Amino acid sequence: MNNVSSEAPSTMTQAEIKLCSLLLQEHFGEIVEKIGVHLIRTGSQPLRVIAHDTKASLDQ
After folding, report:
1. CA 8 to CA 43: how far, in whole Å?
2. To the nearest whole percent, how much of the chain has pLDDT over 70?
């Protein structure tokens, strides 16, 4: 069974999103944190859309 959802974004609280942000930043760095939070807020998206929205290059 596939648990990956392409439906509406998460219903996490702002505190939960902040906690995830801090954990991602601490353990994986700024780029992963930026993209992770973006995905939490928007749901799954194509790589080019994520790169555009987060102003990250596809090379990062």
Report:
1. 6
2. 83
